[in-house]
Fold:
Amino acid sequence: MRKPSRRDFLKIMGATGAALLAGRAGAEASEEHHVNNETIGMLYDATKCVGCKACMSACKRVNSDYGSLSYEQAKFDSDGLWDAPEDLSGSTRTLIKLFKESDKQWSYVKYSCMHCQKPSCVSVCPVSAMTRDKMTGTVDYNKDACIGCRYCQVACAFNIPKFQWEKAIPQIVKCDLCKNTNLLKKGITACAEVCPVGAIMFGKRKDLLEEANKRLSENPGKYLNHIYGEKEVGGTNHLYLSAMQFNKLGLPVLANEAPAEFSEKIQHTIYKGFIAPVALYGTLCFVALKNMKGHGTDDKHSEKEEKGESDHGA
Amino acid sequence: MGHDEYQKHDAKILTPTFIVLLTLTLIGFALIAVRFIKGIGAVTNMSDGYPWGIWITYDVATGTAIACGGYAMAILIYIRNHMHYHPMIRSAILTSMFGYGLAGFSVMVDVGRPWNSYNFFIPSKWQANSAMFEVALCVMAYTTVLLLEFLPAVLTTLEKTEWKTLQLLLDMLYSRMGMKRPERIGERLDKVKEVAAWLKPRLDKVLIFVIVLGITLPTMHQSSLGSLLLIASTKLHPLWHTGFLPLLFLINCMFIGYSIAILESVISCYAFKRPFETKELSGMARIIPWLTVIWLAVVIGDLAWRGQLGAALSFDFYSRFFLLEFCLVAGGSLLLFSGRKRESIRWLFASAVLIVLGGALYRFNVYLIGFNPGKGWHYFPSLAELMITVGIVAFEILGYQVLVKILPVLPKLHTRQQIDAGHAAEGKA
Structure:
């Protein structure tokens, strides 16, 4: 009875393949997810930024208690006078960097969480430690749920979530728009509050987009005609204006589809209503029970085994 | 199925190999202690760009595929109805049990906040969108299933045991303390035997449903191990990032499973000086090339569809690893198409090695080599990180070696085979 059982086996394989194919097709034909412009975010204008890093120190001052941040010592600073992070890290939620192509071509850039409309980190977190607030759109992290698997780091296209590698009790660190600190007390994020030149604007996404479009139309030639984050990965709440190519500033060129849409479509197709796994289990049970018949469940089997399977009906 | 198909391997437990493996295990576990005291950064080269290193790539993603021998054998025996392979399944299940158990253990070493893992059992924290959630639950469930599948071997032993070592030990202890041994202990030991005898036939009756669960669960989580990287569309090289990742991982674990079952049988027969199971192995080897052909066809078809064939043949860094993976799997399968080579233990061994290496390299390519988080990030495992992985693998082999000597795991040798083996041994001497 080899042939029928092999066919059964291939059927299962085929069914899995078909399910995956359907998943792929489904992903391409999906309706676009809705962008909520009432959510809050920030607009960073790289042409206004003077690189004073007031936002960085304000962020650490305000958020240090919440999330147990520490200061990073620079290599040259043996006395520990300066906090000099080289990149976003387990103790740095926002960072200013200077990109200098030539003496005339340069730009500052600010890094912090992009607060995506369809965040990959939220989609992949197995224990809902990463969440997106429906009202405000803020992507927040809960260290009491987090198991520290770092899948959010793998998933984030902007490499934003940072892990405290040097700690025995580590956590993920990322911007939460001062949700429990400055925003709660003063209604504005600390970085936007202290910026002396208005390079960081805080507000609702629709107002930020309106302002960005106004700046683009009022200053032709000053900016690249592109609002970074308007469409990228399904839209982000942290938006950028710049005179210099965004990918040079460390903001990757990204498709408009959210990576989470693609992966969730496939995952949902396979596990929709948990039907496929249950059906698979049922089918396999049926086949296995049928195969077990004629073999008996006792020890007589060992006498027959020499003869092979030719006499085993299925 | 009959429990008298299996036997203990009568040999000394304390061999030189045992000492070497034990040393490696102890080094590994000492380093794990350092990791828990000083943090993950103290022992590894992982970074915010490469948050998953060799532990996830080898111990979890590749290790569970290598532990798919039990899964592959179960499909072969119960679904494809080749019951004459049944005597081989117990050793396959034992290696799967170690593989999965230790993969779970590695995860606990790798995650930063393991004390929060109870959240996997709290429905309000469930996150069905996450492939990781699915993998975690399935792997936990499957490890339990493997334990149940292996339980008959333990029960059979408990049922018949005379507790000789334990009796001796107790006698010694009590005589040292100058006390008389209480009767209770003997009664309690008898009770354990009774429970084992009571449980065994009952477990046998429902075991088939557990076994089928043991086929369903790996089908789910092995494909989900591929789904894990679907989200990394901007980081995983297009040679490997495809919607077919789940399907490719599923077929991949099947052909690795059969190949590893062959390797395990050849190696343990060689190491324990038992006759080779050539007939069974060559029968099993016939399935592998069909699986690999499907897998290779999906790989090529998908690359062609996405217009990546040029990238595959460009001979750059990524293309070379892709071609190596491809050629290892294809080369191993070509050998197995020849009926004559399938009859030879040497060729069987060689082709199974090629296929396991190729299949494992595929998983490395997806999890590490093809993963590029952007400029400025580099990863190569540190010595301590590697030694932890080595320690865990050493522990796996150690456990297998010990358990086959105290529990009936290996297929029972037929009298004729035993005589043949005896003759062969005499011939060698």
In short: The CA atoms of residues 248 and 299 of chain B lie 8 Å apart. Chain B has one domain: 3-155+209-421. Residues 3-155+209-421 of chain B form a domain with the Formate dehydrogenase/DMSO reductase fold fold (CATH 1.20.1630.10). The mean pLDDT of chain B is 90.
